[in-house]
Structure formats: C-alpha cells, structure tokens
Design a protein that fits this description.
The protein is mainly beta. The chain has 2 domains: 131 residues, no CATH class; 277 residues, Beta-galactosidase, Chain A, domain 5 (Distorted Sandwich), CATH 2.70.98. It is built from 4 helices and 29 strands. The longest helix has 12 residues.
C-alpha cells in the first residue's frame, strides 16, 4: 500500500504479529465491551500477544472516566460566567485526582472507562488453555481486532488479571509517549488562576515521530517531525481560533488572557502521561466557559477534539498557522491534489470543504483529517492563506501567514451551551498524523480512510 511508503522504516513490526498493519492507530474499548473484566483493579489488568511459540507482554492503558459537573472542574459549584451557569453542565470526561475534576468515584474498571492499546501490538491466535506466567487462571479475555479497510486482516491481544504478588505492570515497561505538563506558577490546585490568567506553561509532548509544545491552556505553538529522515524544525506558529480572518475580538489568546473590560476563565480537566497515550483536556473560552478541547496523543498521531458549548455565534475558524520554517513545503488537500508550495507568496486553490489537508516537505509530513458531529445543519469551507506580508491582520502569533489552513464554519451556529439551557451540540475532531518526508495525496487519502474507519475489536472469553 502506498500509505506505508511514508516513514515505514521508523516502526519495527512486533515478532509474529497479526495481520493488522496500521502502525499509528489505536484500539480503544470501553469497560462495557469487556464485561468479564468489569470491577477489576486497573493496576491488575495486563495485556499480551501470542507469537506462535511464546507470550510477549504489550503495553495497555486504562483511562478512568465519569460524568462530572463542570462546577466541580472550576472548584466552584455556583460559578457563572457571561450568564452561563457551569453548574448546569454535566459531561462524561476523563478524571484526574491532580485537578479539581477529581478521581473517578468508582476506582475499578467500570463500564465507561476506556482500555487502549496499539493496533500494531496485536499477535496470533493463542492455543486454548495457554496463559502467561503470573496471570490468574480463568481470567483471560481474547480481543479480536480487524481492519475494515483490509480484507481478512485479523490480530489478537489477550487481557488477563495478574496474580497477587506479580511483578507485571500494565505498561509492560514501555513508554510510547512522554507528556510533561509544566505549569510555571507551580502546583495546579494551589496556583492556577481559574478566573484570570495568563497561566504560563512550558509543557511538552514527545512521541516516536513528533514533538509538541504548549505555552498556555489554548496556546499550542510547536510541531516538529523528529524522525531521522526529517529536519526536526518547528513548523508551527500557532494553532489558531478566530470567528473570521482578521477578526481579533476572540482568539486563542483571549481564551487565556483577559482583554480590557473582559474576564477570562478556564480550568484543566486532566493532564495524564500514560504508557500508550497522553491526555490533555481543558475548558473555558471567554463566553464559552464550558467549551472544551481534548488532545489525545499517540506516538505517531494526535486527536484534537473541540466541544463548542457557547451561545449563538456567527461563524468560527479553526486553523494551523505555520511558521517561516515551513517554507518550501507543499500544501495539498482533497480538492487540490497537486497542491501549492508554501513560500509566503499568495496562491489560488480550488474552493470547497476538503476532507483532508496535508503539508509535506523535507521537514516531514503532517496530515489533518477533520470529522464533525453536529445536531444541526451548517455550512463549512476550507481556509488557506499563504502570504509573508499579509493584508489580513494576524491577530496572534507572528506577523506572517505561511500555509495557514483549516476549517471555517461560515454559517451562524445556534446556542450549544448547556449552561444557558441550550441542547444543540457541535463537536469537531482533528486527527493529525505525523510522518516523515514524502507525503502525497495518495498517502493523505489513505490516512483519512484510517481516521474515519477505526480498527474494530470484539472481546471473547479465553479458555
């Protein structure tokens, strides 16, 4: 497949792996999908693959979730911002004892918790009656994984409860990602300014193929492709949020820092550094105090989910503004396969609402796939702007527009804020793949197929 011409050498396939060939994509199951492991201690659940002759432990991760009132996340059940009562908002979120969200009230593996492992860690079908050392007899669960994009692709992972006194750990001694949440003021619960700001950070995420950096809650300001074949330069100026190009009244900066006469509010839901994935989730965007963004980092992929939750607004623009270090890369999307060179010189491309975007060059390849969930109809268009001396005001970041690109909802959005009593909903997910140089329209289309057709899994008792 052409997809795997991009940075395939960066991934070693496990010995005696199953036929699941996706190296960047996870398998995620809820506790409800693995009923025989319900009420297990998450620290006692371990995963293995079978090579045909032996058991090999693989890293797994359980992330606990619960329905949490947003007044708790703000450490103020009566908090009201811009007329929105966050105490009216109750949502299923990842839990954390390190924030005011708090730990899951049920510390065991319950039905809405998630268990995750990487598709590339699957193996062969194991013989009946076989189990790894230090695991409990009769506790085995066989997870059958299939790829809907590849006929007859099957891989297996086996989950067990470990025995008392076992030295096995769920992470299997592996660390696929390393997320360091570093709040410059100190401890989150004692120093974070929930109703002012800024709250400066020096937070980093390092995976197998990329590095990310955050300087405040909404301030995402670094992307480096770190594969040996790439140049390892920072190609991102900002991940930006505006109502429209050149309209600076609301932006990722105003979400973090109060403007004169206005307030700012925000809080973290969770910052988790796990063996398989890391999670960064936060709330608060000016008059959308329950607006939420969640980053889920895998070692070669990042999922960015944005839940709007705000009063009616006229439009919204979500885009990546790249830095001068992206000069020479080629921008293409699903409507413009040939693409244009990012060089600070304006280009005209075919208009429309693309299903994927890609930036590729010696710096590496970044492919974006957009997925929107909405309870109402809307109008969307792609946004692209490449100009080193832009006439349009650059509200945040540097003074340039290098390959600025993303999605623009151009129609009026109704109220989506439960804190105002509204029931409409709108959420967007940006799935980002980080690969080495050499990305093409073919690889981008394949990445989109993967993002919208996730690996499928089913659980069976292993006897």
């Amino acid at each position: 497949m052409a997809l795997f011409a991009v940075a395939v050498s960066a991934v070693a396939r496990p010995a005696a792996a199953g036929s699941i060939t996706r190296t960047s994509d996870p398998v995620v199951l809820t506790g409800a999908q693995i009923p025989t492991l319900l009420n297990a201690n998450p620290l006692y659940v371990v995963g293995f693959r079978w090579t045909g002759t032996a058991w090999v432990q693989i890293p797994i991760q359980i992330d606990e979730r619960a329905v949490v009132n947003f007044g708790k996340i703000y450490n103020n059940p009566n908090a009201t911002f811009y007329g929105s009562q966050v105490g009216l908002v109750n949502k299923l979120v990842y839990t954390s004892a390190a924030t005011f969200t708090g730990a899951d009230p049920n510390a065991l593996f319950d039905s809405n918790d998630e268990l995750v492992f990487m598709g590339r860690d699957t193996g062969l079908a194991a013989p009946s009656g076989s189990r790894p050392a230090q695991t409990q007899a009769g506790s085995g669960v066989r997870i059958r994984v299939t790829d809907p994009l590849v006929a007859n692709s099957i891989g297996y992972v086996y989950l067990f409860r470990k025995t008392a006194g076992s030295t096995l750990q769920p992470g299997a001694g592996k660390k696929y990602v390393n997320y360091a949440f570093t709040l410059l003021s100190g401890d989150y619960k004692t120093t974070y300014q929930l109703t002012s700001g800024p709250n400066l950070e020096n937070s980093t995420l390092t995976g197998a193929s990329y590095r990310r950096h955050f300087s405040d809650r909404w301030l995402s300001d670094e992307i480096r492709i770190t594969l040996p074949s790439a140049t390892n330069v920072d190609i991102l100026d900002r991940h930006k949020a505006l109502f429209a190009p050149g309209f600076c009244g609301r932006s990722e900066d105003t979400f973090d820092i109060p403007s004169p006469g206005a307030s700012v509010e925000g809080a973290f839901v969770i910052n988790k550094n796990g063996p398989v994935r890391a999670i960064r989730s936060y709330v608060g965007a000016n008059s959308g105090p329950s607006a939420q963004r969640t980053h889920i980092f895998y070692d070669r992929r990042e999922d960015i989910r944005s839940d709007l939750r705000v009063h009616s607004i006229g439009s919204i623009l979500d885009f990546m503004d790249y830095s001068p270090a992206a000069n020479g890369m080629r921008y293409r999307n699903s409507l413009n396969h040939a693409g244009v060179i990012v060089d600070g010189t304006p280009d005209t491309i075919a208009a429309g609402n693309p299903t994927w975007e890609q930036l590729a060059g010696v710096q590496g390849t970044v492919t974006h796939v957009g997925i929107i969930s909405s309870s109402f109809a809307y109008t969307a268009a792609g946004y692209y702007y490449d100009d080193s001396t832009p006439a349009t005001t650059q509200c945040t970041g540097d003074a340039f527009a290098y390959g600025s690109s993303g999605s623009w909802i151009t129609s009026t959005l109704p109220c989506t804020d439960p804190g105002l009593g509204c029931t409409a909903n709108f959420a967007s997910t940006r799935v980002v793949y980080y690969d080495g140089p050499g990305g093409t329209a073919t690889t981008a289309a394949a990445r989109r197929s993967q993002a919208v057709s996730p690996l499928q899994a089913a659980a069976f008792v292993h006897t």
